[in-house]
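task queued by scheduler; priority normal; single chain, no ligands, no partner chains; default sampling; output format set to structure tokens
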Amino acid sequence: MGAQLRVYKRRIRSVTATKKITKAMEMIAASRIVKAQRQVAASTPYASELTRAVTAVATGSNTNHALTTEAENPTRAAVLLITSDRGLAGGYSSNAIKAAEQLTERLKGEGKGVDTYIVGRKGVSYYGFRERKVEESWTGFTDSPTYADAKAVAAPLIETVRKDTAEGGVDELHIVFTEFVSMMTQTPVDDRLLPLSLDAKDGEDESAKDELLPLFDFEPSAEDVLDALLPRYVESRIYNALLQSAASEHAARRRAMKSATDNAEELIKSLSRLANQARQAEITQEISEIVGGASALADATAGSD
């Protein structure tokens, strides 16, 4: 019985140590979410306005730019998948990978080849374990990305879009990331970055959009303006996606660590009850042995008399 009690106490100490770790990770993730949310809020207006400006240039001119013109028969697409470098974030990375797999299957169903680019060790490990080809990957900055990281990721993607498909280029560029909706909700989404969709969004007034076009003067030409704006457009969209993913990662990790901490508390309570029961059983047994020994001694003394 004493051995069983020692086992319970050892398990309680182990779970208590784990609880301290998960609680600390929960607090760290909670503190980082605030900074990540501010960065998302700061970058989103820039990305939105830059997208609006590029759209206005493309629709306000007759230029058939390579990065805004739909291919007649697209045959190849690039997919950028954003995952995390670290685990312990619930289903954050696995959900993004699942969304990328669904996008890849859809593109292949349309008869397009797919080139995969990955941000984050979790995605790299997933594709590496399955021996799937990855064109290029980046790691080490998913929880705190900078604009320089976004530029490094965007450079080869812009280059492959500029190339002809016969030279290894692609007709489309898609990105899969996790959108930060709230502290409790993070949604994997896939978005086509290039060619830029020039259709009006739901609820957008097309006539109002047309009224804004004369405000833009293209110097030296619309094509040169697009050449300058589109790399910035891709970089800003990727940077915003990296920030959204970072905020989502911290929120998912906070939620996962809170759940782990709560489970540890419940397990400690359960083990404590079992330890108390074992200690009570041990005390009861000791009392029974003492009473039995006293009774035997009393009987022996009475018999000798």
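post-processing summary
- The two ends are 38 Å apart (CA to CA).
- Residues 222-304 form the longest helix (83 residues).
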